[in-house]
Design a protein that fits this description.
There is one protein chain. By secondary structure, this protein is an alpha/beta fold. 42% of the residues lie in helices and 15% in strands. It has 16 helices and twelve strands. A four-stranded parallel sheet has the order 2-1-3-4, with helices on both faces. The protein has a four-stranded parallel sheet with strand order 6-5-7-8. Strands 10-9-11-12 form a four-stranded parallel sheet, sandwiched between helices. Strand 1, helix 3 and strand 2 form a beta-alpha-beta unit. Bound molecules: iron/sulfur cluster. Iron/sulfur cluster (SF4) binds next to helix 6.
Length: 329
């Protein structure tokens, strides 16, 4: 393999600017029997070219069910790993191997292993935003779309370590009365939303319904009318045609599908908190998700690289908690 590509983590090959990339991607998908899955947080043109768009739960289900020979996962690395775990016989392509996740990075397998050893008798529940190595140390995986349902399968007094998203774990503790031990991880995008920014938008748009993702901090969730996954937000907006304005506290990529599904509704994305003096990230977008470009998808299909592999020993243990989640949700 080209050394430069290996170092970059994606195929950096010039593409003839006169070609219609969307058309060519669809042609290659057909020719190679590939299914193209995209997360709601990817850019609009990637969502438009995909066979299927969804949140982590829907994408995991799709990966488990597809008959296609090849899967192109346009999301971040742990999502491609999840596809590979569920469909080990298929080639799983990830258009850019450097598309990581700050939340997955906040929990290293060796640290979780040590924490487990310090807490014998505890079950481990992990958010899907984790590496395969962390999943291999896990009893059951959850997503923001099914966490409450999956958690209900555990007795109320079960001793549980929940990670890596502190905010999601804290929310489950608050609604279920559990006292799970929480890992102190978080998503750098969702942690930047503030109550102040939401209140300011609400003053400007008093009729707007506030929707917030469960990865947001507790004070943000406390002022939200609707709390849930991206799929839950979409379903709510579709089910309430009488509501014409929403304030959205999650990664801004979801606005593409919200707007497509509800064209006569106005969605106001919450800007992230910017630290005093205007210093700090002023972006409510995930830079990892935005690494999926049409050019990279086209090249990954052309060269069938980069593909994602998981160590077979890790894969054997990591797939079990995902399958358990799919059975329970
Ligand atoms: S938005 Fe946050 S949790 Fe989602 S992939 Fe990006 S860094 Fe990870």
């Amino acid at each position: 393999m080209n050394k430069e590509w290996t170092e970059k983590g994606f195929v950096d090959e010039p593409v003839d600017e006169s070609i219609d990339l969307k058309k060519e991607i669809r042609r290659l998908c057909k020719e190679k029997d590939a299914v193209l899955l995209a997360h709601y947080y990817t850019v609009g043109e990637v969502q438009e070219v995909a066979d299927f768009i969804g949140d982590s739960l829907a994408l995991a289900r799709k990966a488990a069910q597809t008959d296609a020979k090849m899967i192109v996962m346009c999301g971040v690395h742990f999502m491609a790993e999840t596809c590979k775990l569920l469909s080990p016989e298929k080639k799983v392509l990830c258009p850019d191997l450097t598309a990581g996740c700050s939340l997955a990075d906040s929990c290293k397998a060796e640290d979780l292993k040590e924490f487990k050893e310090q807490h014998p008798g505890y079950k481990v529940v992990s958010y899907v935003n984790t590496t395969a190595a962390v999943k291999a140390l896990t009893d059951v995986v959850v997503t923001s779309g099914n966490a409450e349902k999956v958690m209900a399968s555990f007795p109320k007094d079960e001793k549980i370590i929940f990670g890596p998203d502190y905010n999601l774990g804290n929310y489950i503790n608050s609604v279920s009365g559990r006292q799970m031990l929480l890992w102190n991880g978080g998503c750098h995008v969702h942690e930047k939303f503030s109550v102040e920014a939401i209140v300011k938008l609400k003053e400007e748009h008093p009729e707007a319904v506030v929707m917030a993702h469960l990865e947001c901090k507790a004070p943000v969730l406390a002022v939200a009318d609707v709390k849930g996954s991206t799929a839950a937000m979409l379903n709510y907006a579709k089910a309430h045609p009488e509501t014409k304005e929403y304030i959205i506290a999650t990664e801004a990529g979801i606005l593409h599908e919200l707007q497509r599904s509800c064209p006569d509704v106005t969605f106001y994305p919450v800007p992230p908190e910017v630290s005093e003096g205007g210093v700090g990230c002023s972006c409510n977008e995930c830079e990892y998700m935005k690494k999926n470009t049409l050019k990279k998808i086209y090249n990954t299909l052309r060269y069938e690289w980069p593909s994602v592999e998981v160590d077979p020993e890790i894969a054997r243990d990591a797939v079990k908690p995902i399958e358990r989640m799919l059975e329970l949700s």
